[in-house]
Amino acid sequence: MIQSKEILEILPLVILAFSATIILMLEVFIKKSETVIFGFSLASVTAAIVTSFLYLNREMILFNKYLKITNSAVAFSVIILAGILITIIASKNYIEKEKINFGEYYSLLLFSVMGMFLMIYANDILVIFIGLELMSICFYVLAGFLRLRQKSNESALKYFLLGAFMTGFILYGIALIYGITGTTNLSLIYANPKIFTNYVFIIGTGLFFIGFMFKIGVFPFQMWIPDVYEGAPTIVSGMLSTAGKIAAVGTILPIILSLNILNFRIIFSIAAVATMMYGNVIALAQTNIKRLLAYSSIASAGYIFVGIAAMNEFALQGIAYYLIAYTFMQLGAFIVVSLLEKKDDGSREYKNVDLDYYKGLGKRNPVIALFMTLFLFSLAGIPPFAGFWGKYYLFYAAIQSNLIWLSVVGIMLSLVGVYYYLKIIVYMWFTDSDEYLIGEEVSNSGLGITATGLAVLGTIVFGVDPNIFFRIFKFIIV
Amino acid sequence: MLDSYIPIFIIITISALFAIVNVKLSSLLGPSRPSKEKLSTYESGVEPVGTAHDRFSVKFYMVAVLFILFDIEIVFLYPWAVSFLNLDHIKMMYSFYSVIVFIVILLVGYIYVIKKGALKWD
Q1: Which residues in B lie closer than 8 A to residue A2 (C-beta atoms)?
Q2: Mean of the pLDDT values across residues A104-117?
Q3: What is chain A's mean pLDDT, rounded?
Q4: pTM over 0.80
Q5: Is A441 inside a domain boundary?
Q6: Range(s) of the domain holding residue A93
Q7: Is the CB of A29 less than 8 angstroms away from the CB of B116?
Q8: How many domains does chain A have?
Q9: Do B94 and A29 touch (CB under 8 A)?
């Protein structure tokens, strides 16, 4: 039975939905509304973070069993909101610089977060599907937001076509699951373990997971990532690679846990190894920093899948921990790239995104170079930064599950990754370039630097005291 | 379990073969005497002007997209309106407010579309 007061149990969702629509109205009714909208969206994301904490340790099933609020869902949603908060703070200067300062940008961001929340809170496959579509459609538009740039259009079109194709996979999977179980409700599906060995059910869940592996960017469904992240506005690339992936992982994690998939552990292991290898090895040859970060995000998806293959208590903590570390460091790196990007001069190209531009950055702009160095150290997995503990928990979990070969291969491949992260650091501090002038970049972007500072803070705080996260969310999944 | 599908597979095979064999046979056996009239696009219609691969204004797309958007509204509202009176009191009020929220969201979209000038034709 639905009760009207249940709406109070999903306050973060309601807040996001309302503010996203109000932003649209502010955009059309107020002239020079950019600053108002920026402040408003910042306030509503903060409000959503605060209200999310109300639902800690209160497991609830709402709206005719369509939504289910668990601790893990709250944890994932808070991680997403933290990423979005940093994204919004960093966006203002960037979209002013690129002359795409429209209110719709913030509105689309908030709508996509709402989609992610629906996915994570869902207790029904169709609700997951609706959330996924809401998120994806906002992403397609955001990827093409720099509409005068060919690269941005290319990225949006590629993302849209491939994403729509993968949506077909997910829908077909849902159809098969519904056909064999007669329900789309996850609780009812979990309650009937006999069905788990039925081959139609296995094909259905397989197709369902393929769609999500596409969104996470796991081999062999990763081919869209470099092109899309290279062409999308830089801040949006950062958001796609953090918030979007977290939402997809947060959605499939409880499902993988509840279905008994130990027999398929080998498939997840192979996918993890292939993803890590693909991301890390191909990143070595990149000369464009956005593409390099895209490949590094593919490698990160591989590390997350090491945890999914291990699938024990440590793995859950490891995945959650790695995701929060990953949010701060990956988003931070993308924000730094966006800060260094050259002002839009009508050339319809991204300027200053080559690795060569980073030569001698330490002399030209030591603060930004220092921030970038911290993010890259964290991505490479060097203690005491958060990225180290994330990888540590994940590989430890693999060892606990007797997947020693997997953790050995994973650690070796992540060592390959250290090379290209350190290459940028060497470029920044130990080489010179006389092509670029001192102080040419980073004018008038106080907010961008604030956002980078927040990301640095997250990277260091969670790195120095990794227990903070688990103290906040006494992490119990399902 | 798949046994029950065997008749379907058989009928798919037969119908595919039927279609292919007939088309092939008629092109092999039938007489072929092409003339200028027969090869024109419409043998007994208006002569085509220009090519179909022409560029046309993006305004058409706008109208089409907006039409679909607001058409969906009817798709949702009509079943609701039909079953509204059959609900008990609490569900009735609940569904009423749900639909109000739905319409308000659409209204916001509508105002946005008008204010942005998407419906201006020139």
Answers
A1: 91, 94
A2: 92
A3: 86
A4: yes
A5: yes
A6: 12-472
A7: no
A8: 1
A9: no
